[in-house]
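Subject: Re: docking follow-up (S-adenosylmethionine)

Dear J.,

Thanks for your patience while I sorted out the input files. As discussed at Tuesday's group meeting, I've set up the holo structure prediction with S-adenosylmethionine included as the bound ligand rather than trying to dock it afterwards. The sequence and the ligand SMILES I used are pasted below, so you can double-check that they match what you have on your end before we go further.
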Amino acid sequence: MKISPARIAAFDVLLKIETKGAFSSILLPEYEARLGQKDSALCHELTLGVLRNQIHLDAIIDHYSKGRKLDEEIRIAIRLGLFQLIFLSRIPPHSAVNESVNLALRARRKYARGLVNAILRQFVREPFRPDADDELERISLETSHPRWLVEKWAADFGIQETRHLTSTNNVQPRIAFRLTNKGADVLGSEHIQRSDISKNGLVTERMTSDLITAAARGDIYFQDEGSQLVGDTVELDDGAKFLDLCAAPGSKFSQIALANHGKNCLLVAGDLRAVRLSSLRKICISQGVESRNVVQFDAVKALPFAAGSLDSVLVDAPCSGTGTIRHNPEIRYRLTPSDLPELALKQRSILANASKLVKSGGRLIYSTCSLEKEENEHVVRWFLSESEDFRLDATPLPERFVASDKCVRLVPHKHGTDGFFIACLVRN
Ligand SMILES: C[S@@+](CC[C@H](N)C(=O)[O-])C[C@H]1O[C@@H](n2cnc3c(N)ncnc32)[C@H](O)[C@@H]1O
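The structure tokens for the complex came back this morning:
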């Protein structure tokens, strides 16, 4: 039974995403590191290609299988085959079909050999093109975003913007990173440019083995420019006391620690989850950043800090992540409409709790990587209505990012970054 290592890896990653709630951004680098360069590139293309076109591929599968319920392994093998037949013209159709049949057999789904073969061969003979009844359905099918999300975005941002956003979500983002304390000299490479978004960001269109090695050594740290812009909002005075309340895995905390190095500040990182805090410690160590003050707590409960004792608190709140679909394509299939009000309640209570720690004149920065108003402006509006001693100040970033309501909203289709919301609340 012949199957290329790239297809086996893509199949295994897709199955873990589907059945174990795994994330492609975490699994792919692990699997790709075990493959040769060519297989690693194909595994990447297949996995993300299937995830970015899943609704479209499933509509084709449901047409041929007449809506029959299929085992996950079978569906994934067919999705992989169809993706190659539709999008990868360099792959001969017989390879796409045979390898998918073999993937189903490898998953011990012998009975499905005929089904996988039949669906893919039928598609090769008479390709079925799914059709939509209305414009929102068309966007949903063509860009593989669930209908409810397309409807919501169309209501919130308009149809044109939704079309633009959903298609941008399926484009491979450029690679953004920043130098760490170890200060590698990667600027010499001509394909690397300075970011025009974040203060110390660097960007490139292509991943190279030099960059992967530099990241493994801790000389550079991969971080989206939008995420770096959140870190840029925290500029501390000498001796300031700062708490990053939802800090793990530490992208922004390590960035803030590096940017404010040598100011004799007290920097504390906290998070609910111990495993994520151990990732934070590793990330800090690899970048040469101090990580002595790391605390585990539940930020909706009483916090282990004196009221009014901190100059600056960052609440990078747990959220739906709808701004990061370019990097995490599977998020769109996991979210449900009822997640948004639940998240908003949690965000409100974390923000209100965090506010108690801020001293007079101190700053409370609220950020999410969500595009949803329920998690962003509605949370801030609610907070201000409950907290007379806080006001909303203009987010401390270059003016071009700050909207007339003083908040920052980054969106992938306009800024080329992940989507982020940032608000700066100040205690009177
Ligand atoms: C958006 S992520 C933070 C990303 C992080 N700031 C960074 O830049 O790497 C949100 C974090 O909130 C944490 N979290 C969720 N619920 C929490 C709670 N009740 N208390 C504290 N942290 C919580 C999650 O574990 C997660 O690490």
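A couple of observations from a first look. The two ends are 70 Å apart (CA to CA). The mean pLDDT is 95.

Let me know if you'd like me to rerun anything.

Best regards,
T.
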